[in-house]
Specification:
A: about 350 residues, alpha+beta, Heat Shock Protein 90, 2 domains, about 15% strand, B: about 250 residues, alpha/beta, Rossmann fold, 5-stranded parallel sheet, 8 helices, 15 strands
Amino acid sequence: MKSRHHNNRPVELPNFCHLGVSLRIALTVEATIIAGVIARVADADAFWVDFIGLSALVQPALLLCLLTLCAASRWLRSLPYIKGVMATLAIAVGVPLAVAWWIAPLTGGMPVYPPVIVGLFALGLGGGLLAYFNLRARALSPAITEARLQALQARIRPHFLFNSLNAVLSLVRSDPRRAEHALENMADLFRALMSQANQLAPLEEEVALTRAYLELEQLRLGDRLQVSWHIQKMPADALIPPLVIQPLVENAVYHGIEPQPQGGEISLNVYRSGDKVHIVVRNPVAEAAGHHKGNRIALANIRERLLLHFDLDAQLKSEPMGAVYQVHIVMPYTRERTQPAPAHPDRR
Amino acid sequence: MNAPNPPLRILIVDDEAPARRRLRDVLTDCAAELPVEIVGEAENGLDAITQAQRQPVDAVLLDIRMPGMDGLECAAHLNRLHAPPAIIFSTAYDAYACQAFELNAVDYLLKPVRVDRLVRALGRAHRLNAGALDQLREAYPKARTHLSVSEKGRIVLIPVDDILYLKAELKYVTVRTAAREFLLEESLTRLESEFEQTFLRIHRNCLVARHRIREIGKLPGDDEGHFLRLDGLDERLSVSRRQYSALRETLRMG
């Protein structure tokens, strides 16, 4: 397996198109400006004048820089690390200089800051940020990330295992074919649960797994469990972290269906909107809900796995909406296996 | 016929149909060692109690985790029957409950159930004693869905949702629903802590259903006294001075 060799994988440049990366860059630049201005001025009024004036100069350069880096991200990441760093710094210095030169006529012919200052400022910040991303990449090295993902591996409820075994046993004599099918579903489910794979997996596999799980639950719960699937517009080839949907649905059954004598309906909505994949799971809220803790642990677990895979580009929102409880996950639509990233990704 | 022992009359209670079918299969298998007769199947606690009142039952195989009335509550009500049946709990997985069962020598089965284990449990099945049941309830702190009272050798179940107020009177607690009154042998303090989500104390001796409060008024002539009226009941209940401010506080928040 590739993952065995990740310990001595060379450090990579960050993917500049990721929201988390851009946000960290922008915030650092802004914080540096604030610190610089505070060091120079005496009172609050002067601070605002200076800060706004400086921001007006820096923002266009910053935005253009981020766009250029994002556009060049693939190329930069395909270079050897040192060359990549050089090229990144060249962009980080070149773009602000170009912007300074371009807006010079607007400020009366004379640049507000001499090009040397602009260049050094950009070089210092760029170098500092790259050093930070380098450290961060080491701290979140695939080995550590993988260990954390392993610890977060979804666990099925023992309650479900034994009840399902019991249901299968009840079928062995009367309906051996259904018993066989149920055991096949259990095998698929447990293979996925016990696999060490923390790589992204195709969405359609996760959906098939969720279907296998729901068939087993239907065996026990009969008509009490109704499922409505809305997956016609699902991007089947999207890659998502494994075991994201199944645990959500398991929660929905455990908290929303089982406690209700008349049962209820779980609705599953998977679709793509722009470059995002949306997963929405809804279940009825049981009146006497006394076990929220388990639910929160499961959600926190999924949330952390999304964070490890997608940083700030993925979100998980959960909220009761009247008689319905909804969990909504948004994650980037990707068909590249970026996590844990191989050194020289073979892209398409 | 020369059957030495009459067969053991058994009631199966589980909310999942496959689980009931499985118990039926296993009970058939143990017929050679232990003559049994399955007198009924119930899919929830309420149904189980109805069936156990209609016909004599020797033993109940009772699932714990069921929607609505769970197994432990059902057992507590069954125990008030004129001739309470032996109770054997069944559960798929619940380390916590099993520990409580072991401690209190309560019979239980783990699903999936094995024949020999079932024969052994049925062979020694006995009635639950009230003390053990209380301790199980402490291990499982969940408010009951029904209160039960014995009337003429039968038990009557009162859905907690139907109760308007609970009033302590000498040895008993009067339970008032829109339709009628019942006498209950329980302590008001314990009822208050069990049902703190549902009932509010308005007086030293009275708890009222939170969601049934219709109006709170001042008693004419008396400048300190207040009364309270509930939906569907003309009766004016007096609110003690001590509870009045607390009552206003909770009503404003909720």
